[in-house]
Amino acid sequence: MDKRSQDDTANEPNEGSEGIPAPDGPANLIDTDYVIGQDNITSTKFGIDFDLHGKVFTVSSLVILFFVIVTLAFQNQVAPIFNAMFSFLTGNLDWFFILAANIFVVLAVVLIFTPLSKVRLGGANATPDFSYAGWFAMLFAAGMGIGLMFYGVSEPLTHFGTSLAGDGGAPLGGAEGNEQAAAHLGMAATIFHWGLHPWGIYAIVALSLALFSYNKGLPLTMRSIFYPILGERVWGWPGHIIDILAVFATLFGLATSLGLGASQASAGLHYLFDTPNTNVTMVVLILGITLVALGSVLAGVDKGVQRLSQLNMALAFLLLLFVIFVGPTLLIATGFFENLLGYVKNLPALSNPFGREDTGFTQGWTAYYWAWWISWSPFVGMFIARVSRGRTVREFLIAVLLVPTLVSILWMTAFGGTAIDQVISDGYNGVQDAALELQLFTMLGQLPLTAITSFVGIVLVMVFFITSSDSGSLVIDSITAGGKVDAPKPQRVFWALIEGAIAIALLLGGGLTALQTAVITTGLPFTLVLLAACYAIIKGLMSEPRSV
């Protein structure tokens, strides 16, 4: 990799331009003649400004629009195709997704303990752009908000039930007939899917993007990570393909989350107000919330995303506290540490990619989750990169790995543990028998103030929906604008509308299976991209000056 000092490039056009700050203090910039946005098409039509990377935007938008139209036009025909694809991919490639996720986590953890962790993102003298409170709120809200709402009760309950029965979907063979062992195993399996592995994936992508943009002076886009491998070819079709794959993965990963959010919000409204729980309701919800999200998109990161993220965290924290203090408080308090130890104890077995007998669990759950997180990684990683300038690599990795993992364990312990306790101690099977999207509200129905807490739950799902949509729009717009972070706002509006359209198309074209299939299909090629990025990030960090 060709390098030069920051002082040698102080007046060149690709440094500090297009909204990307120049490195603050010593940093080794990459020696390239490429200027951010040089391949863009800049125009004004009907009073609307456009600034687009011609090839990436055109290919991405046309393929996505074609997919939406075909899926909506041939709903009955595409559903069996989605089912067959999901079964094939998870049945044959679960080991690949598990192995790849392990590599990402191991790399992230190892980097913390190496001298490379002293590198500061944004230059040796850079200072953080956001406070810890604002930073943590945006990390968590962007990372997995809707997922925690949808699966916080349903997944621990499901793994508890399959473990108790000892059927094919049980993690690690289950604990047939033993309620306490099944509960512990169910919680460990749930935390496995929401702990270090997803955040290890996000951390690697975010760290790579931040390093090559803020320290190396390259555009804030996925192709920049691969400069150590591709050199100047990264600005040609090899780079175009990487960015296009990132757009596809991000859009379908987001659409899955939006689809889950819409189905849960619809179920919650039906539970509280007896509104119809139909596809029409879900489509109306997606349309309405997408329109609300546009306002946040136009407000930008500081005013829109950060404020909504902080609102999310406040509401989520209040709901969490309510469940802890009104639910089985002692069980939750002791369960947090028991579940943490159970997670650590079962982690080697759960993360083993080979020779597994619990294929119902690895194929139906783990492979889907890892593909989902990988699909989300361009979106979450780029968003985390944008708000993490000024942090050291060690500070960054510890925060991104540990803080959300511990919060996820507490959340799953409170919500999932309360639901399991209702089954074991109270003999209440209603929560276990309810549909997945309704189990949160059924659990809350056994606690005081049901109407209020359920309504807060619906609001949380909707606000998480909005923050995911506007955060994703900012990221996809940056990719399709050639790495510019301050492209015209109408482009963000376009992508916010496209996200909603994909979610609607997938819901109508096959429901949850269609959403899961889209994630697996786009996550597969992008997994290969991220594995190559692991080499690039080490090369990039080795060339950087380190803080004392």
Automatic annotation (TrEMBL):
Membrane topology term: Multi-pass membrane protein
Key words, A-Z: Cell membrane, Membrane, Transmembrane, Transmembrane helix, Transport
Primary localisation category: membrane
TM helices/strands, residue ranges: 56-75, 95-113, 133-153, 196-214, 235-260, 280-301, 313-337, 367-385, 397-420, 440-466, 493-512, 518-538
Positions of region (Disordered): 1-26
Places the protein is found: Cell membrane
Assigned protein family: Belongs to the BCCT transporter (TC 2.A.15) family.
Protein name: BCCT family transporter
Source organism (scientific name): Chromohalobacter canadensis
